[in-house]
Amino acid sequence: MGIVVKFLLILLVVALVIGMVVRLFRKPTRPVETGPKKQRMPLIVPLIGWLLLIAGVGMGLAGFSARQGTDPVPMRIGSVVALILGLIVLLLHRNRYVQTGADGVRFRTFLGRQGEIAYRDVTTYTVAEAGWRSRLQLRAGDGTRLKVNPMVFDMSPALAAIRFKERSGRWPAPGEAR
User: Fold this and answer.
1) Close Cβ partners of 17 (under 8 Å, ≥ 6 residues apart)
2) CA-to-CA distance for 15 and 104, rounded, in angstroms?
3) Which tens digits make up the pLDDT trace of 113-141?
4) End-to-end distance of the chain based on CA atoms, in angstroms?
5) Using CA atoms, how far apart are residues 170 and 80, in angstroms rounded to an integer?
6) CA–CA separation, 155 and 148 (whole Å)
7) Which of 14, 32, 125, 167 is the most buried (most CB within 10 A)?
8) For residue 60, what are the contacts with CB-CB under 8 A and spacing of at least 6?
């Protein structure tokens, strides 16, 4: 049984390396979008998700092919937990994005709910800094709320609209220079 597990692990590693190399050299097939780009979370987040998935598969192979006389239950439970956490982290990275434009912010939450806040519809906003961490919160009149870290996502158009509001007392009209 041990040779089968080693063969499966080697096969898994080879498949992952081939997949990574193919993805590196693949050319994008989607047309180039004009306008603001969807910003996702940092690259470290999906890497952590993939590492958790790989660890879960490895622990699962080891737990389900354990020798007689050993207790494989903790390894099996750990593998399931690592697989589920890896999938959750990958889904969270896939769902969450922020797209700032000249007239508003489009976003999707971790759970997949999409929202859009036009700058002229913002009723309250908060820009707070606590040590090395900052936070921007926008709330629209219809209750839509967005909380982001402007150090992670480029929120410069939103911050420029906030500065315009503080200078002139009103939100910029669509297409108006800031």
Assistant:
1) none
2) 43
3) 899 999 999 999 998 888 778 899 999 99
4) 68
5) 53
6) 9
7) 125
8) 75, 76, 79, 80, 83
| Residue 51 bridge partners (DSSP) | none
For the record, the structure tokens of 47 come out as 């890497």
Residue 163 zone, left/alpha/beta (φ > 0; ψ -120 to 50; rest) = alpha
Q: Is the pTM of this model over 0.85?
A: no
Kindly give the residue spans of alpha helices, DSSP state H, lying in 65-140.
73-95
The predicted-structure confidence for 66-112, as pLDDT tens digits, reads as follows 777 777 788 889 999 999 999 999 988 888 889 998 889 999 988 88
Query: Among all chains, which residue has been given the structure tokens 């889904």?
Result: 91
**Can you read off the two tokens belonging to residue 75?**
């390894």
